[in-house]
Write a structure and sequence with these properties.
- It is a single chain.
- By secondary structure, this protein is mostly helical.
- Helices cover about 85% and strands about 0% of the residues.
- Helix 1 (about 5-30) crosses helix 2 (about 35-60), helix 2 packs antiparallel against helix 5 (about 130-150) and helix 3 (about 65-95) packs antiparallel against helix 4 (about 100-125).
Amino acid sequence: MWRLPAIERLEKIYTHALGSYFVVFWILQSLFTSPAEGLLATVVEMMLILAFTAGLTALVGKRQAFRLILAILLGSTSVVGLLAVPASIWLLVVETGRQQLAFYTLLLFPLWWLAVLEHIFHRFLEKSRTFCFWLACGYATATYLATFLIIL
């Protein structure tokens, strides 16, 4: 059963998750674009994640869990993103023609992230893993593809 932690701990977790997500994804975005575009993309992504999480918690009638779910989504995504930074740098510095291994290594992180999201949604919604996997795919598409389209 889903339980909320003590409110004081939740506030600390929430603040750390927001901060870590912002820093990690600004770094990741800035590796492939300018720092200003990276900042804009990170802010847009965060707003889309906030909207998605608010909609999801409202839809399932668990508004009281909004901050906790948001903290879990941002925190877990930050961990995966932080671990993807070295692979991203590797892709940028490897010699032309030798980028294939770095590229395929970097592709593992989004797949791992989808598995993490599926698990979070499965625990929160208490729905089938298949449903939660497709929800994770929808979440990823809605947040990252929409950010790309908005920034374009």
